[in-house]
Amino acid sequence: MIRVLVLYPRGDDTHFNSEYWLTKHMPMLSTKWPKVVKWEADVAAPDSPYHAVAHVFFNSIEDLQASMSSAETGAVMSDIPNYTNTSPILSTNTVSATS
Question: Which of 7, 8, 66, 98 could connect to 89 by a Cys-Cys bridge, CB 3.0–4.6 Å?
Answer without folding.
Answer: 7
